[in-house]
Amino acid sequence: MSSSPDVIELTPYEDNDSVTFTFHNVTTSNITLLAPERAALHTVICMTVLHGVIFFVSVLGNTITCITILHNGYIQTTINYYLFNLAISDLLLLITGLPFELYSFWRPGDVYRVLG
């Protein structure tokens, strides 16, 4: 590496080759950190309600599907066992994935701003 703060030297896998990039006028005051934009509060609330409805309807539908296939002996066919496995996997995906998806919408201060 070079001692100048404006020069970055990168060495590839071969020992003989090197690449040098020069950045002029780079200081800590003119570097912008790119962070993900947060949505407006009304958008976050609408998305939370929508995700809640999807979660409730999906859990209810998949649970009814599993109970129906398990309790009725005459519909226990190979295809319905496949549907049972799909319903179980959908339930697992909902329970493990959707709360983290909702968490990504909210900033820590948003909850107190809505409640306060």
From TrEMBL:
Localisation: Membrane
InterPro entries tied to this protein: GPCR_Rhodpsn (IPR000276), GPCR_Rhodpsn_7TM (IPR017452)
Ranges that cross the membrane: 39-70, 82-106
GO molecular function: neuropeptide receptor activity
Membrane protein topology class: Multi-pass membrane protein
G-protein coupled receptors family 1 profile domain segment(s): 61-116
PROSITE patterns given in the database record: G_PROTEIN_RECEP_F1_2 (PS50262)
Keyword terms, alphabetized: G-protein coupled receptor, Membrane, Receptor, Transducer, Transmembrane, Transmembrane helix
UniProt GO cellular component terms: plasma membrane
PANTHER family noted in UniProt: G-PROTEIN COUPLED RECEPTOR, PYROKININ-1 RECEPTOR
Similarity section: Belongs to the G-protein coupled receptor 1 family.
This protein's name: Pyrokinin-1 receptor
Encoding gene (name): PK1-R_4
